[in-house]
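Usage

Read records sequentially. Each one opens with the input sequence:
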Amino acid sequence: MGASVPEYFFGTTDPALNQAIYSSSANEIESLCSKYLNKPFNECRLIDVGSGNGGVAEQLAKKAASVCGLEVVPALHQHAIQRLKKEPRANLNFTLGSVYDMPYKEEFDLAVFLTAIEHIKEHHLAIEKILQSLKPGGLLYLTAPNKLWPIEQHYNLPFLSWLPLWLANVYVRMTRKAESFEDASYSLTYFGMRKLFNRFDVDYDFVTPHNIDSEVYSCSMAKGKGLYRFAKWLLDRFPFFWVISKGFIVVIRKK
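and closes with the structure output:
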């Protein structure tokens, strides 16, 4: 992820929609992770890797023992600091830094990595650093878009993520969406995700949303609940359909 804030990131304001996304995301994380954790959620120490403007971390801090937000983009980090000044919480802090430079060793029960893996090139190093920060038996909760979904989810352009980077850059410039697609160009397919996690001593599950009636799923609006309900039914019964899923929710357990 670069040092500037691309247009598709949440800005420095928090409309009601964003607040709904933050709250719903925190509820989903608690619901989906609780059955995998070896202690109650409210006793867990969390790290939110790629915490952005701090909205989800703030909601998680209402549920967990403590939350550390880590963000590499200075503008987003500063917004998180301002958020904390408005509503101080003793169990919440924000740190400016890269996932590649995480210094933590077996400190957290749960790491949250929300729609961030598509913004980083060195996937293996990032996952390695996050797993090092977890206690034995700790969890990594990860969400990500599917590279094969026909409509790229940052710029809403058909087949953008299917293209080689040089051609994708031409595409976003021609459509006046951005100067470069590189920042969001590192998404993975279902099999790419499995290949990545298989390199580590972990167990992992691809999971569907816990609350299908939520207003938001995995950091975005839930558009067309009937379709989401059918997709959940399909994925729960026929895991092969993860190959063409719009995105992924993965719970990874460190052995």
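Summary fields computed downstream for this record:
- The two ends are 29 Å apart (CA to CA).
- Residues 217-221 have pLDDT under 50 and may be disordered.
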